[in-house]
Write a structure and sequence with these properties.
The complex is a heterodimer. Chain A contains no helices and eleven strands. Chain A is mainly β. In chain A, strand 7 (65-68) and strand 8 (75-79) form a beta hairpin. In chain A, the strands form two sheets. In chain A, strands 2, 4, 5, 6, 9, 10 and 11 form a seven-stranded mixed sheet that branches. By secondary structure, chain B is an all-beta fold. In chain B, strands 2, 5, 6, 10, 11 and 12 form a six-stranded mixed sheet that branches. Chain B has a four-stranded antiparallel sheet with strand order 3-9-8-7, with no helix packed on it. The chains are: A mainly beta, B mainly beta. Chain A binds chain B through residues 31, 33, 40-45, 48, 50, 55-56, 91, 93, 97, 99-109, and chain B through 4, 9, 32, 34, 36, 42-46, 49, 51, 90, 92, 94, 96, 98-108.
Chain lengths: 115, 115
């Protein structure tokens, strides 16, 4: 399978714990995106990488959230001191970064439940 | 900043009925438009996209959408739905102004097709 992969698929944690999610984009896609999706809503943009550079962050991304893409390939999203409001599906997407093409390919998501 | 409005949050149709899902966007310049679909238990996948040219766009599985610039609309249509079309449908927009631009999603429409 050469699509976008995410790990883990499900994560249950207690409030106050730190969690880290991983995303492996389609190889050679230089753009990578993180979204959050809650019940009854569409995906909400969190952050965007072009290669290893984080070029945009949403105001939704509080200082408890940090994302990295150290070698321009896989990315991690860490949430520190989780809160119940962080419970959501976290989606990763990638795109080839071609001029005029913003088509994004999505992974299966990581569902986070904070107890 | 751009925004997307999907009018119908939950649609129930019988098989063979015709489908039209409304989508309106708000943005002052040229845009790229997308419809994504999420089948039960699966991840988001692209149904069709409009970048430029013919405003009537045909996608996979018999879906089509028409971009009406004067109405800021990009409604999704299918002449005869099947039970397998049961899914959640998301309209999305991004400015078409070169380079990277953030994709904004609508709230989604859940379609239930009754056999």
């Amino acid at each position: 399978d050469t699509g976008v992969s995410q790990d883990p698929r499900h994560k249950i944690t207690k409030r106050g714990q730190n969690v880290t999610f991983r995303c492996d984009p389609i190889s050679e896609h230089n753009r990578l995106y993180w979204y959050r999706q809650t019940l009854g809503q569409g995906p909400e943009f969190l952050t965007y990488f072009q290669n290893e550079a984080q070029l945009e962050k949403s105001r939704l991304l509080s200082d408890r959230f940090s994302a990295e893409r150290p070698k321009g390939s896989f990315s991690t999203l860490e949430i520190q001191r989780t809160e119940q409001g962080d419970s959501a599906m976290y989606l990763c997407a990638s795109s080839p970064g071609l001029v005029g093409s913003n088509e994004q390919f999505f992974g299966p998501g990581t569902r986070l439940t904070v107890l | 900043a751009q925004s997307v409005s999907q009018h119908n949050h939950h649609v129930i149709l019988s098989e063979a009925a015709s489908l039209e899902l409304g989508c309106n966007y708000s943005y002052g310049g040229t845009v790229n438009l997308f419809w994504y679909v999420q089948y039960p238990g699966q991840h988001l996948q692209l149904l069709l996209k409009y970048f430029s040219g013919d405003p009537l766009v045909k996608g996979i599985k018999g879906f089509e959408a028409e971009f009406i610039k004067s109405k800021f609309s990009f409604n999704l249509r299918k002449p005869s739905v099947q039970w397998s079309d049961t899914a959640e449908y998301f309209c999305a927009v991004t400015p078409n102004s070169g380079g990277y631009q953030k994709v904004t999603f609508g709230i989604g429409t859940k379609l239930q097709v009754i056999p």
